[in-house]
Amino acid sequence: MATMLTINEAAALVNGLTPFRIRQMCIDGTLPHIKAGKKYLINRSVLFDIIGEKAE
What we know:
43% of the residues lie in helices and 18% in strands. By secondary structure, it is an alpha+beta fold. It has a 3-stranded antiparallel sheet with strand order 1-3-2. Strand 2 and strand 3 form a beta hairpin. Helix 1 packs across helix 2. It is globular, with a radius of gyration of 10 Å. The chain starts with a strand and ends in a 5-residue tail after the last helix. The mean pLDDT is 91.
């Protein structure tokens, strides 16, 4: 099962990315996500694939 992260959780895992920037990446289509109500949910492995870092 995939681990889904909120914007704040994703920002806490990635140095140098703020919640604002992650939200903008979701809005402009750079970062694939699922929108559940008002929340953006991001797949953890996809996040690390997109930013090019190794998952911790």
